[in-house]
Amino acid sequence: MHELSITHNIVAAVAERAGNRTVKSVLLQIGEKAGIDRQAIEFCFELCTQGTVLEGARLDVEPASGTELLIRSMEVVDV
Amino acid sequence: MCETCGCSDGAVATIVGAGGEHSHLMADGTVVRHRHAEAHAHDHPHDHDHPHDHDHPHDHDHAHDHDHAHDHDHPHPHPLRMGPGPKPVHIGTVTETLAIKVLDKNDRLAARNRSYLKDHLILALNLMSSPGSGKTTLLERTLVELGSKVAVLEGDQATSRDAERIAATGTKVVQINTGKGCHLEADMVWHGLESLGPEPGSVLFIENVGNLVCPALFDLGEAAKVVLFSVTEGEDKPQKYPHMFGAADLILLTKTDLTPHLDFDLSLARRNLAQVAPGVPIMEVSTKNGAGLADWYGWLRQRQQDPGGAK
User: Fold this and answer.
1) Range picked from A63-72, B209-218, B293-302 for highest mean pLDDT
2) Of B52, B59, B56, B7, whose CA–CA distance to B33 is shortest?
3) What pLDDT, in 10s, does the model give residues B32-85?
4) Which of B67, B123, B134, B205 is least enclosed, having the fewest CB within 10 Å?
């Protein structure tokens, strides 16, 4: 289940950028040839975000072309 | 003003997110985020019967269309100023563009491995296949017969059985147990290289976790990916796992000594491979009777001429 380690990477990368701000949502782009199952990512996302600034955040997924696997943006609470 | 709804007159700028949710930067500097229903049309089909004086009752169907404009509520407190008192706390959100490639970290670590391997003239090969297609058995024979300096990194979820088999050939080997992981990643290989210390000029075989899915996604810094496909698998494996076969630089059809006992159609398997991996060389090998191994060794020696070379 490579989606688990990929989701860990996603959560770690977003948490690093967010610092101590709470993340409300993350927008991910998954290419059709990325070899990544969207449902598996969604399943892992809830697990991987527990205890992080992403806990409870929504995951939005957009389709993309090729092997793209990109964290496009995050929505954070503005303090 | 927000072009989607026009509701934010007086706001300075908007950041539109997915799903109709959006934020407005208010004049006082606060950002509010909300979603509201848009005007939309409803169809209400309905049936009703009319009793008639004459002797054949019948139905009428009507479809009615009508449009509603909906009012909407904002699920956030408005920054009303009602005389003296503390300024209301207003929690808004902002969207930040990240554009982070998820596998970027692995790719950077793989580049470090590749540069180390090139500097030490080490030819690194990433061996991948489903479990049980003969990676370790092929290595056992290759390590002895190739006649080059060799070293092995063994990847498995658990146990050091494969490393023990490799060590029995007298080859330097380090076992990497991935635990819950289903593939090797570039940092595991980096640490493996630190422990293994392969000799300059050697051939390094990296035996990946037996799995036709995710090892294809993770660059380890190898010079080439070698994918094994045994004749005891179905001819349609390439179609089922196109990412793996599509990523291969060389495909070895293994256990060919078994073909007389199987219904496996070699030419169909080759046609299937050509579809997902056009132009990739295919070699038929058997570690039992040695068929095709000379081709494999020839390919290895040729790659050794330019260990860090392009694929």
Assistant:
1) B293-302
2) B7
3) 555 544 434 444 444 444 444 445 444 445 444 444 444 444 444 444 444 455
4) B67
Q: Do B190 and B73 share a structural domain?
A: no
Residue % of chain B over a pLDDT of 90: 61
pLDDT tens by residue, B205-228: 999 999 998 898 899 999 999 999
**By C-alpha distance, which of B19, B10, B5, B6 is closest to B95?**
B19
Q: ipTM of the assembly?
A: 0.88
Q: What is the CATH number of the domain that holds B125?
A: 3.40.50.300
B163-190 in b/e form (b: 16+ CB < 10 A) is bebbbeeebbbbbbebeebbbbbbbbbb
Q: Is B274 on the interface with A (CB under 8 A)?
A: no
R_g of chain A computed on alpha carbons? 12
Question: Which domains can be identified in chain A, with CATH numbers?
Answer: 2-76 (3.30.2320.50)
CA distance B126 to B156: 14
**Which residue does chain B place closest to A60, by CA atoms?**
B18
Cα–Cα dist B205/B117, whole Å = 12
Q: Specify the pLDDT at position A3.
A: 83
Query: Considering B97, B126, B150, which residue would you say is the last residue of a domain?
Result: B97
Q: Which residue of A has its CA nearest to B93?
A: A77
Tokens 């490639």 map to which residue? B101
Burial, B9: exposed, middle or buried (Cβ in 10 Å; 0-12, 13-18, 19+)? exposed
Are B185 and B38 within one domain? no
Which residues on chain A are in Cβ contact (under 8 Å) with B103?
Answer: 6, 9, 69
Confidence of residue B96 (pLDDT cuts 50, 70, 90): very high
Domains held by chain B: number: 2
Residue-level pLDDT at B34: 52
Give the residue-averaged pLDDT of B219-246: 96
Q: In which domain, by residue range, is B266 found?
A: 104-304
